[in-house]
Amino acid sequence: MKLLAIISLFFLSPTNEQSIDTKDGGKLKFYNEGCLSNNGENCDIIIEKYDTSQKLSWKAAVGGSSWDYVEDVIEVADGFLVLGNTSSYGQGNLDVYVVKLDPQGKEQWFRTYGAFFNEYGRTIAPSGDPDGGYIIKGERQHCLKENVSQDCYMKPLTIKINEIGDNLYEQ
After folding, report:
1. Dihedral sign of CA atoms 36, 41, 45, 49 in order
2. Which of 1, 18, 50, 93 could form a disulfide with 27 if both were Cys (CB 3.0 to 4.6 A apart)?
């Protein structure tokens, strides 16, 4: 019975809910919602901003018509950068997905990074370079044949982007 309760809680609650403290003393929660279906059409990234009294200030859903997963969020001077992975947009199966939200949760822009095979962004952080920007760390699927096969493996992925999401380099 206990196992059934744990399984039910997992499937009925938002998946992988995480949070960060914000500069204004509030909190930003982020998680995936609707990702249990087999076609991904309702699988979106949910961002919730709470004020200092833990009252919900705003809620935003980002993503398209297919699978969209959140991995990391950071606060920047003029809002938030949401890092995830998407099959709604981009060039391949899953691509790295960055969404810029303003301080009120309105989408400013989004970018995808990737090619035909899977790319996964796992973390995003300020680069620390004099020219600014952000570093995304993750993995890239590398396949020895043209299509996905047993001859695939994961390689480290590093992407540097500027403040408007332009890809400055990728390795």
Report:
1. negative
2. 50
Tokens read off for 57: 């200030």
Check: CB of residue 123 under 8 Å from CB of residue 70.
no
Whole-model pTM: value is 0.87
Identity of residue 71: E
* Structure confidence by residue, pLDDT tens digits, 9-56: 334 444 579 999 999 999 999 999 988 877 778 899 999 999 999 999
Residue from 32, 96, 43, 92 nearest 65 by CA = 43
CA–CA separation, 169 vs 167, rounded Å? 6
